[in-house]
Amino acid sequence: MYPAIGLVELNSIARGIIVMDAMLKKAPIKLIEAMPICPGKYMVLIAGEVAPVESSMAVGLEVGAGYVVDELFLANVHQQVLPAILTLTEVEGLDALGIIETFSIAASILAADAAAKAANITLIEVRLAKGLGGKAYITLTGEIAEVEAAIAAGIELVAPRGLLLTKIIIPAPHDDLTEKIL
Q: Fold for domain 81-181?
């Protein structure tokens, strides 16, 4: 899809809208998502070529100034991350199920990217704070050893920042659970 993504998470909705406008005007990037999130925050997620995303992020952080809660710039994002954010991943069934839940959107995207790069898994979804009180989570599937390696890689990045809420691995999910996840 796109080689780079950027995200700015702010504690002000109004400031978030101004940041989005500035980022869109700065460079030819694709707006993936921009919306208010609980509790009273705003997120702007962009994608595109590396240099335009990097320059849009720079202006977004400048305009956001003291309102920025978290931010993310990934120059070589794994090809599964954006489809998982957009819930476009098609999965036939679940082998083992892994879940990483974080306190920020950027942390979940970082965890998803690291997990996908570390192991042979399929990212199912990267849920970005929609109805989650500002939290985010990822779900992934694959063989148990691959899921364990992916979860370990994902939490290695977010735990030291204090942004990991929990991680779960279910070796053989029940069929009814599979229907709810997929």
A: Alpha-Beta Plaits (3.30.70)
The pair phi, psi for residue 107, each rounded to 5°, is -65, -40
Which CATH number is correct for 4-74, 3.40.30.10, 1.10.1530.10, 1.20.1250.20, 3.30.70.1710? 3.30.70.1710
Q: Where are the domains of the chain?
A: 4-74, 81-181
Reply yes or no on whether the pLDDT at 68 is more than 80: yes
Give tens-digit pLDDT for 109-167.
999 999 999 999 999 999 987 777 778 999 999 999 999 999 999 999 899 988 899 99
pTM given for the model: 0.92
Within 10 angstroms of residue 166's Cβ, the number of other Cβ atoms is 10
